[in-house]
Amino acid sequence: MSDIEDELRQFLPSGFGKQTVTYEFEGQYQKCKRLEYTDLLSQKASKNAGITSDDDDGSDDYDELEELPISHEIILKEHNKTVSALDVDSAGVRVASGSYDYNMDLWDFNGMNLASLHPFRVVEPVESHPIHELQYSRSGEWILVIPSSSQAKLFTRDGVEESEYVRGDMYLRDMNNTDGHVAELTSGAWHPTDDDLFATSSLDSTIRIWDANIKRAQRDIIVVKSRTSKGGKTRVSSIAWAPDGKYIAGATTDGGIAYWSTSGPYNRPVASIQDAHEKESWTSGVVYGSDNITLLTRGGDGTIKLWDIRNFKKPLLSRSGLQNTVQETNISFSPNGRYIITGTSSTPESLVGQLHIIDKSDLSTITSLTLDASKPSSVVKTKWHPKLDQILATTSTGDIHVLFSREMSVKGAKVVVEKAPKVRHVDDNITADIDLTAAAVTPDMMSGKHRDESRLTNQQRQKMARKDPMKSRRPDLPLARRMDGEVRVFNFNADDEENLQKRRKI
């Protein structure tokens, strides 16, 4: 008897009033755990087992690996081509991504769960134009969009277009006399301390500084001249502001790097170096360190180089062998400045590119992560968010990988993992048997002929009856003659054949 009571008790509520529902998300974290990270830890542990106390280098590597937010990941899949642009707002809530599929996708961590990883807005900023760069303003209210056209655009954080900046006169030879770019944009960046200023670079050999409130002309212009072609034009591939906003640096396709003081004048750089990278290679990434004097570059020649702008003659450190065939591949520092992150491209020798986390002190690799080994792909954009302590990386297959640590990371992807899935109503069960014929809509239904008359008012019934020829007993309509002599028959039958023949003889 007790067994029957126990079974019945399972169907009865345990209490009255509002019940506290708890969601167990341990299984969700297990789904997001990266097997590659577990393998790396086991390899490091086995390696350290044979190291004596006199040599603790291996244990240091083990500790460094545990400090990295790479133990778990979620993957955002919406683009179908290379994700060439990526940024996260300063609060760590919104993510903006741009792609070769022409779309800008806007994501919200607070609006997603593991069962529904989709953007809340998809926008095509410029029809049939890939996107090179996206960047949130410091306040997070605006998104600067750098498409493959000559005009930058400004969008709100909700994906509404706010401004499109002017295009220059392509027939003017002197770039100082044009009010905007005349060739394809390559890069763009907000001023680090002023939300009203941003800079853009282009294939027209200029860097232009804009006031976000003025669309008709740039505020300042820097015409970049090549030192290898007798002062001729050169294409500017990437730019970067110093964190204090006092300098702006630019890289060119002739292998050169230069930087200018933002207080002017802009007719010549403060310093430049001619052969920083190989000529005709695309230097895809330039970034300042937090000290405002360290400059890091990512070359299309497969190298990364660390510079001191006070002695701009040769790099402090250099490393090669990091293949880069995608023009949007960037490079960036970790929030604490100890590490450098960048991606590598797929090659015939190595079909799968990797995410590299590099020690800034000697440019050695701390770890290299394969994000997707199932198909050839390159790692393009990377970002280590300081508030979330999470790493975002995009691939040439259209995926966005968000790597995080369950212990160290804050919000962001953790909000997605810990959010309970939506409780579906019984009516939401798409697998239930549905009578599709009952839900079919016919023209008669659209006209109201098959309405449920029990729900109609008397006035509606009378109106429908007047339109029904049977209920209203409407007589047959007579023949009518058009002005052009053609006869229209409203209600024709065989008895009218004789009259019709007579009318045609008239």
UniProtKB/TrEMBL annotation:
Please name the PROSITE patterns in this protein's record.
Answer: WD_REPEATS_2, WD_REPEATS_REGION
Keywords, A to Z, come to:
Repeat, WD repeat
Instruction: Output the Gene Ontology cellular-component terms.
Output: nucleus; site of double-strand break
Q: What Pfam families does its record include? A: WD40 (PF00400)
So which domain of life are we looking at? Eukaryota
Ranges where the record places region Disordered: 444-476
**WD repeats located where?**
76-117, 178-220, 229-261, 286-311
- Compositional bias per record (Basic and acidic residues), positions renumbered to this chain: 465-476
Keyword Zinc-finger tagged: no
Query: Sorted alphabetically, which InterPro entries does this protein's record hold?
Result: WD40/YVTN_repeat-like_dom_sf, WD40_PAC1, WD40_repeat_dom_sf, WD40_rpt, WD_repeat_GAD-1
SMART domains in alphabetical order? WD40
Kindly provide the name given to this protein in its UniProt entry.
Uncharacterized protein
Give the originating organism: Lipomyces starkeyi NRRL Y-11557
